[in-house]
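Hi L.,

You mentioned the student needs an example of a multi-chain input paired with its predicted structure. This one should do, with 558 residues in total across all chains.
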Amino acid sequence: MTTQDHLTTSHPPSALSRLFRPRPVPDLVLTAILVIGAIGACQVLVYSGLVSRFVMPLPSSVLPALGELVHGGTLGENILVTVGEAAIGFGIAVTIGLVLGTLIAEFRTIERIVYPYLIALQTMPKIALAPVLLVWFGFGPGSKIAVAAVISLFPILVNTIAGLKSCDPGRLDVLRALGASRWDCFRLVKLPNALPFIFSGLSAAVMFALTGALVGEFVGASAGLGYLIVQANNSMDIPQVFAILLVLVAIGVAAFAAMQIARRKFLFWSPNED
Amino acid sequence: MGKMDRVTLGETLSMPGAITAAPVIATRGLGKTYATSAGEKIDALTQVSFDVGQGEFVSLVGPSGCGKTTVMRILAGLVAGYSGSVSVGGRIVHGPTPEIGVVFQDANLMPWRTVLANVTLPGQVLRLDKRACEARAMELLALVGLSGFEMKLPGELSGGMRQRAAIARALLHDPRILLMDEPFGALDAMTRDNMNVELARIAAEAGKTVFLITHSIAESVFLSDRVLVMSSRPGRIIETINIDLPRPRSLDVVADPMFAATVLRIRRLLEQSTGKDPHVTLAH
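Structure written out for the whole complex:
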């Protein structure tokens, strides 16, 4: 009875009320508002002189500085230098991380020998090695590659070991009951099973490699985005520093996107994806 | 070869309902001792001897923790350091043999492989022809009622469907024996009943010898030609019971007085051996 009453008394919403009905704002819009608001606030603070232009550039001066950088003609090659160093360092870290991680996870003896060193190294802040690596590998790209490789190695190594050791024994029994070789158990069960872990390690390592290349360039270099930042900073060209930071953000986003594409391709089956 | 000597201690003489034809599986004096973390030794199994004939459906029932799974793992070649011997097809085996296909308690499908690729997995391990394996996998998926699901991922299947896929996988390399360890233990009672009917059909159509491990007395009686009753601590076989119910059996067989009498008899045996009520679910 009451429901029927309710039905008859409720009016169909008018077109006007539908238009003004509050509806959820998409998250993306909120994010954009936040960014624009923050940039606007900076503009006001710097323009009014509340914050010194040597501390924070006028946001409106960053894009012209970026334009200058692009027109200068050296930005492209400096990007290539830094990205190249990071990529080669990352490649070395992936190779060593996967091979060493597999050996440690699969062979008890190797684990016992190597593990103490691994823990000691892991607890040490590896960035501190950058000056030493500069001495060892020289002023050129070698030392930057080394820093990138050293700091991006650990997330890959640790996750590879954890992934290979986390294998469900039931799945291995399926293969063992068929008399499968150790190699078959590895390639058909353990390795694919470890992929979600390995990809977590790779995602972290990509960013670490970029950081490593930059830090290497900070310590001493004659090319690369890190070198450009130091140069601009020394000449108090703060807008240019921020312009380079924008370039680095773009590179970071591109690297992250590439990792996500790889994840989707290899981890389509994992319940943690999407 | 010390194992062989223990074999000849006349275990066959005490086998009720022994098979006259050469057995497909023969175990003699199986025993397994585990050491606890305190260094104490615990006998999980002692003197477990039985035969399974060609095409026979034999179940091993017993209370939880009586060593049933240890028997299964020894047969599958997954346990080292046991006493006694296992022979399959007349030959003593010491490890895994392709003559046995195993279905585990969990389906244990590889989540990154499609259903079809999971079923063809044994072919990859045993280096069988890929084309032939795929064709056979399609046939087996039809046999277990999974046609049309070949390209699905295990995560998209229900528990019952995953276990069907696991049965198809166990049959891929055409083993003589299907070894099953509580294959439907994780399923709900209704699905479990249906899977049992399906299993009876699949075993008959595929012409396999089946050795099933279960703690459900009703399930063992429903499916088997013979039921081996096991007691716990240490696990040993206390009785072998022939099930003479006509085949094919439908679920209505539970109303048969002989079914009820057999279930009760096994239950009494287990009660006597453990001194308490065994875990019985009469949903079956």
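You could point out the following to them. Chain A touches chain B at residues 168, 170-171, 173-180, 184, 188-189, 192-193, 195, 269-271 (CB under 8 Å). The two ends of chain A are 46 Å apart (CA to CA).

Best wishes,
N.
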